[in-house]
Every structure is written in C-alpha cells, then in structure tokens.
Design a protein that fits this description.
Layout: E1 9-15, H1 19-30, E2 36-40, E3 55-56, H2 63-83, E4 90-91, E5 94-98, H3 101-115, E6 122-124, H4 126-132, E7 143-147, E8 151-152, H5 155-167, E9 172-175, E10 179-185, E11 188-194, E12 197-206, H6 212-218, E13 226-235, E14 247-250, E15 255-260, E16 263-268, H7 294-307, E17 316-326, E18 333-336, E19 343-347, H8 353-370, H9 392-405, H10 428-433, E20 436-441, E21 444-450, H11 469-481, E22 484-487, E23 492-497, H12 501-508, E24 520-526, E25 532-542, E26 545-550, H13 555-564, E27 573-576, E28 581-587, H14 591-595, E29 613-618, E30 621-627, E31 635-641, H15 645-656, E32 662-663, H16 666-675, H17 711-720, E33 724-731, E34 743-746, E35 749-760, E36 765-773, E37 788-792, E38 795-802
Parallel strand pairs: 1-2, 1-12, 2-9, 5-14, 12-19, 22-32
Antiparallel strand pairs: 3-8, 4-8, 5-7, 6-7, 10-11, 11-12, 13-16, 13-17, 14-15, 15-16, 18-19, 20-21, 22-28, 23-26, 23-27, 24-25, 25-26, 28-31, 29-30, 30-31, 33-36, 33-38, 34-35, 34-37, 35-36, 37-38
C-alpha cells in the first residue's frame, strides 16, 4: 500500500477499507474506472470486517438483497482466479432448524420465496438433517431448510484479495488517513477533507462502517445506524470433529454454529444486547474488542449446548464481543443520497456485511458507472430515512429491537414496538377511542385495524388467518357496500409554489399537470432510463400553487427529488406541509349520502366530477374535498386544518351511524386497493420499472409540450415492446394466503414473483400484484394466457391472471 501522499483529485473517493469499500474499488476498476482512491482511517479490515464470522447465507429478507448475495457468490467463486489470493470460501451449505410448528411454517414459506431468486433450497426431515449434521440433538427437532450452495469464507482474506485486484488495475489505497469533512456545491459532492489534505472528487462513496453516520453528517446526509455489542464463542479443538459441516442456524436458540479449524464457533443474535458508543465512535487504532459478558451470554450458550451436546465438553478458546452497526429497520443503506448527488452510501449491514459486501460493491460500481442500479433495491434506498431516525435515543431503542428480532420468527404484518408513539395524527385519540390497533410507518402511528368492543387490541401473529382477519374484512365490506372513513393524515403533503411551479412539475411528470385550477392529476416521475422514481397525485389549488400527495414513507424522497430538479434560475419553492393538515378518506357507495347533508356544496356527479378538488364548507368549518379514490369506490379525500380534525371526525361518525359507517384501517385499505390493482411505490413499482411494464401507460401524455424527464427512453421502450409486466392475480383456493415474494409459475415455468398481496374479501381469495417475465418481447395477451400457479409454502396453487382490475374493471364505481 502507498504512503500517505494524497492526489489533488480523483474521479471516485471511497471512504472505508473494509470488504464493502474494497469491493466497490475492485468492481469500479474492473469496469475501467481506475482513477479511484480508497481511504482507510486505520488499516484494511480494521473496522468490523476483521471479526466477521464468515458465513455466506442466501436467505435474506427481500428479493433484491438475495440478488446482492448472488452477486457475492459470483465474487467468491471467481476472485482467486483473478487475483491469486484466496477468499477461503468453502461450500458447506446452511441448515435453518425448525424446532417448533411456527418455525416449520416459516421455513416452508421461506423455501418457496427463495425459489423466486432461483436459490436452491430443500425442506429436510429430521433423519436427513441428522445425517448431514450428526452433532445435533434431535430432541424437539421437526426438520430443517437446507441451502446446499451456501458456505463460508475468510473476511480478511477476501478483503485483501479485493484490494489486490483493485490496486493491480490502478486504484490507490491509502491507509492511516481520516476524512474530516465533505465538500459540496450546488447539491453535489465535490471532494473530501482529510488529515493529510483535500481531494477533489466527482463521486464519494461512504463505506465507513460504524463511522458511516458521522461521515454522512459531514455531508448533510442522514444515515441512521448504531453499533451494538455482538458476540461469538470459539471452542478449543474438538477431537474427531467432522470438517465442513453445514452451518446451523437455530432461531429458537438465537444462535448459529459452524466448524472452524477443528473447533466450533457459536455466534449469537440474542435479545438484550446494548448500544456501544452511541454518542460517536471514538478515534482509535481499529480492531475494537469489547469486554466479555458471560452473565449475559451464558444462558444462550447453555441453550445451544443442549442442541449441540459436544459443546458441553469443549473448552472455550475465545469469547469475542465486537461492535457491529445496525439500522432501525434492519435493512442496510445502499445507494445515492437523495439530497446530495454523487454521494453514495453502503453502510449499516446488520452483521451481514461479509456475505453481502462483495455483491454490494458490485452493485454500487455498476450504479456509479451506468447511472442506475443493476438490482431493484427500493428497500435499501436512503430516501426511506426519516429525520428522527438519526436521533440518538430513537436509534438506541429501535436498533436494539432490530437485533432482538433478527432470529425470531419473521411473521407477516409484524409490528415494531420500540420508540413509540412518536408521530401521531390529530385524530389519534379519536381513532384510539374507536378501537384502533395501531401499526407504525415512518414513525407515524396508523390505525391498521379496529377491534370491536370486547375484542383485545393486539396482534396474534400467524402464517394462517390472523386474529384481525374478520375485523378487517368487516371494514373492507363497509367500503365496498356502504361507507367507511380512513385516517390518512400520515400521507405526505408537499406545497409547490411560484412562477415556474407549472413548468417544474410538468417537466417531472409524465401526465399533464397544467390543468384547470381545482383538478387533481395522477402521475409518475421518471428517471432518465424511464424508471418510476415517484408515484404521486398533484392538485392544482391556484395558478401557481400545487399540492403533491405522497406516501408517508416516500415523502422525503419525493421532496428531495423535486428539489433536485428545480433549476437555479427557476422561481419555484417546495415545502413539506404534512403536519399542518389532517386527512380523512371517506369512501364507499354511500359516501355522497353521508357528506351531502353536512355541506352546502353540490356533491352531485354533474357538479362535482371525479378528479375535481375544491374547498367546501363541512359542519362548522371548511375543508378541501377532492373526489378521488385509492380503494376503487365513490369517495372524497378531505384535507382538514389540524385544529378542526376532531370536529369533522365526530360530525361524520354521528351522521354516518345510520348509513353503516365504519372507521377503516390500513390493512383493509391495502386489500381494497389490491382488488382494484392500484400500485404502491416501493412494493409494486420502483425506479427499475417503467410505466409501460407497470400498466400505467394511461398516465403518459406522450405529446405534452416540453415533454418530460425520461420520455426518450420511454418512447424507445414503447417502440421495442416489453417482456415483463405487472399482473394482477387471485388464488382459486379461497383458503390460501399470500404475503410477498412468492414465485409465480406459468405452464410449469418460473416466470416471476409476487410483489404485494393481501386477502381480497370481495373477490373471495388472496389477491396479488406480481411481476411476470417472458423470454422475449410478447403481446399483452401472453401475460393473461396460460396456466398460472403461485407457490405457497411448498404448494403450488392455481391463480387467475389479469391485466385489467379484477374488481370493477371499467372503473365505473368511483365515477357514479
């Protein structure tokens, strides 16, 4: 490695010399980008990479993160041939043990889900499990899920090999240099300050591991992550121990076990860990090791002795505790910062940095070179980050829960419990009084379902019908058959104003927002490749004033995207006004019957058409009423000054009782929107999907004056045709459920995966939106033809496919 002599500039500066930073450098160099400098504050691997356990397991929680591990496997298989330095990778397989009926249900679902990524996985009975791993105690064992292509390797060896491959192609790696500041100009990163001088840079990559939050703060980028104490134990050598046994992961015992050089390593994802250095990672020489804590760890180790009895007579050679960085939602951060161009982040890997790092570096390098991610990863996008998530107290509470839940059963609809309540609607008390059972999204408390009198307000998690199923069905039917009201106050609201507001929004939007005052426009914002960066509605409330409605989890992202596209010479401002207004969606065939007697406004079809928005009197106050729907029924969204929200709630509640009005939660809203095949950004669509594939071509105004960002790419896609589309499905078996990521088969061929799903109480079966891909460009009809099946927990279930909404395909109900 070179001495601490910095160049004046570099095309890319990478901060962090762990496996992710070196992988990014290596893959950039392989793409021909060699004007790259990697800066490491201590020595390579000295952050958390050096003490990684070395597991390579493909069973990640989302389709995209599994694809990242697939890329890592490619690196493990090919790197030594390229560099001459071994990664130490050995294919051993992994077995996820089932020691309870709930675990058995979980692994059956997981086995199906991973097949959507073409990952080999097999459910084994007890005898076969013991045959592959004879050290296990079979007591309480019900079977296992076996991943034969999994393995293990050396984090240090892999990092050094990646560094060697990068430097031999011209990358400069400089150790012992600390970044002390980040330079920016006009919303773009321009370089870094260090203890050895300043480097101008076109791109900066934050791969600083535990220091990633502090480095982000230097650039004005929120990166919530927190180091936690993380333990493993290595035994003395065990006589006659078989080599290269499958790695064992036992969730009910919060542990994994692998053999290592004639000994066993037992690692833990146990409840009750603690935050380390939450006020800032100290300056040190790296290779941090935290004190032993047998009082804490002992009970978990003893429990694992019961599962692997040979541990009882094995001495302990090493009791290791080191810090690992975790994130509030348990998902790492990978991608470009939404508010700072060319500042890329790869941090917060929740103790899966070794197995994800080589692939993450590959993704990041392609992203920088090509201008877009090669893998669809909305779940890792920094745009999901909320400001409160970098609050130290919030981080400490929430990341501890992330670790606590790591090896628990991963239930459908599982809710977080820590650091709540934080953000509440003006209607929080009223919805609570009405029986609301709250979930949390982006810090917001939201009524997911309502418990009738006498019903306990809590979740009983299950892979079958949950305890709230029938209650949510009742809410669903209220909106389909009568009227319901949903507190949607958590939705994001962006006020866009100024002389150039029309031109800015029209440049971003595929639809034409230059409408009459009092009209709402549904539209997407695209990137240059035609991918969907935002899915919003825009209401023109004055000549130069618009209100953009976005989801609570995407509003920060959409705000940053909008600001990014306002030119320096344009008169246009945007403000997040989400907290100033409550919002109630009043939906159902009797919505007009409910609202009309409470206002002097004419709500008839002739005088208040679908898509219109205006301020009306309601009760004793005024609200903005917009005739629109996200559930496929007649209705109005009411934007209400926060101080008047309770008045409107109680007014509607009392007037609606004889009409069958019910308060309705988000679980029902989701089942209603899926029956109507309405899309949700981050679940069904994202930046890797275009409107033609997504069935949203109807929003695109191709000949709009001035065009829109991404039009050229979208026109090319339109001319060439597509081989991939978003399709609606309903299962033929009314007793089966769907959740997400289940594989889709057409005529016995794997063709796609479920994006989002819930039970459709009107359609009478589980309903889903799923991506289907053909081998070549085909006609639209191909996607509805053929024999479709969706695999659920190892069982293929017949499904009906449609490119038109299965509920009210002509969209007549909202317009009556």
């Amino acid at each position: 490695m070179e001495a601490k002599q910095l160049p004046a500039r570099a095309q890319v500066v990478i901060v962090g010399g762990g496996i992710i930073g070196t992988s990014t450098a290596y893959h950039l160099a392989r793409r021909g980008w060699t004007d790259v400098v990697l800066l490491e504050r201590n020595t390579l691997t000295s952050g958390t990479t050096w003490h990684a356990a070395g597991l390579v397991t493909q069973a990640r929680g989302t389709w995209g993160t599994r694809e990242v591990v697939q890329r890592s496997l490619d690196v493990f298989h090919s790197l030594e041939q390229d560099t001459g330095f071994s990664t130490g990778f050995v294919k051993t397989g992994t077995m996820n043990l089932a020691t309870s009926p709930e675990r058995l249900a979980e692994i059956k679902h997981l086995a199906s889900v991973v097949r959507g990524n073409k990952i080999e996985a097999e459910i084994l009975d007890v005898d076969r499990t013991l045959e592959l791993h004879p050290l296990l105690n079979p007591e309480g064992l019900l079977g296992s899920l076996y991943f034969p292509e999994d393995g293990r390797g050396s984090a240090t060896d892999t990092t050094i090999s990646l560094a060697r491959g990068a430097t031999k192609r011209g990358v400069r790696i400089i150790e012992g240099v600390v970044v002390t500041g980040v330079e920016t100009a006009d919303g773009r990163v321009t370089g870094v300050h260090t203890t050895s001088g300043t480097i101008e840079a076109e791109y900066v990559v934050n791969a600083a591991g535990m220091w990633g939050r502090e480095l982000g703060a230097m650039a004005g980028v929120d990166i919530p992550l927190q180091a936690l104490a993380h333990y493993y134990v290595v035994t003395e050598a065990i006589k006659d121990l078989p080599r290269n046994l499958p790695t064992i992961k036992s969730g009910d015992e919060y542990s994994y076990v692998k053999d290592e050089a004639g000994a066993l390593m037992v690692g833990f994802f146990e409840p009750g860990s603690y935050a380390w250095a939450s006020e800032g990672i100290p300056v040190n020489n790296g290779f941090i090791q935290l004190p032993e804590d047998w009082d804490h760890l002992g009970p978990f180790y003893e429990k694992m002795i019961e599962r692997v009895p040979v541990l009882a007579d094995a001495g302990v050679r090493l009791h290791f505790c080191g810090p690992e960085s975790f994130t509030p939602d348990g998902q790492y951060h990978l991608g470009e910062a939404p508010n700072l161009r060319n500042f890329f982040v790869a941090a917060g890997f929740n103790s899966v940095g070794f197995l994800s790092g080589p692939g993450a570096g590959s993704v990041l390098a392609d992203w920088i070179v090509d201008g877009r991610s090669p893998v669809d990863l909305p779940e890792t996008d920094l745009g999901r980050v909320q400001r409160h998530e970098t609050n130290r107290r919030f981080l400490e509470a929430r990341v501890l829960e992330s670790l606590d839940l790591s090896y628990e059963v991963h239930w459908p609809f599982q809710q977080r419990s820590s650091a709540r309540p934080l953000r509440v609607s003006p209607l929080y008390g009223a919805t609570s009084d009405a029986g609301a059972v709250f979930g949390e999204l982006a810090g917001w408390e939201r009524a997911n379902w309502y418990a009738p009198d006498g019903v306990e307000r809590h979740y009983e998690y299950s892979f079958e019908r949950p305890n709230w199923f029938e209650h949510s069905a009742r809410e669903h039917r209220a909106i389909r058959e009568a009227v319901g009201m949903i507190d949607t106050s958590s939705f994001g609201k962006l006020l866009v104003q100024g002389r150039d507001a029309v031109s800015v929004l029209n440049r971003l939007s595929v639809n034409d927002v230059d409408t009459a005052v009092g009209r709402i426009t549904y539209t997407q914002w695209l990137n240059e490749q035609g991918g969907i960066e935002a899915d919003v509605t825009i209401t023109r409330i004055a000549d130069n004033e618009f209100l953009v409605l976005s989801g609570p989890a995407t509003v920060n992202r959409d705000l940053a995207y909008l600001k990014r596209h306002i030119g320096n010479d344009e008169f246009c401002t945007v403000a997040d006004v989400s907290g100033t207004m409550a919002m109630l969606a009043v939906m159902g065939p009797r919505a007009r019957d409910l609202l009309a007697p409470l206002t002097d406004a004419d709500l008839s079809n002739e005088n208040f058409a679908f898509g219109e928005s205006r301020e009306i009197d309601l009760g004793y106050t005024k609200v903005r009423a917009t005739r629109v729907t996200y559930v496929g029924e007649l209705g109005w969204e009411l934007l209400i000054p926060s101080e008047s929200a309770l008045h409107i709630w109680y007014l509607l509640r009392d007037a609606g009782e004889p009409l069958g009005l019910l308060p309705v939660g988000y679980h029902a809203m989701n089942s209603l929107r899926l029956e109507k095949a309405y899309r949700s950004w981050g679940h069904d669509i994202s930046g890797a999907d275009n409107p033609i594939q997504a069935g949203l071509s109807f929003t695109v105004k191709w000949d709009k004056p001035g065009g829109f960002i991404g039009r050229e790419a979208l026109e090319k896609i339109k001319d060439e045709g597509v081989n991939r589309r978003l399709v609606q499905f309903v299962l033929e078996d009314p007793d089966q459920l769907l959740f997400h990521d289940e594989p889709i088969y057409r005529d016995d061929q794997l063709v796609g995966r479920v994006a989002s799903a819930q039970y459709g109480h009107t359609l009478g079966g589980a309903v889903a939106l799923g991506w289907v891909k053909s081998a070549e460009v085909v006609e639209r009809a191909w996607f509805q033809e053929g024999r479709y099946e969706i695999e659920v927990a190892g069982q293929r279930v017949s499904a009906r496919a449609s490119l038109r909404p299965l509920h009210d395909p002509k969209s007549e109900r909202p317009k009556n």
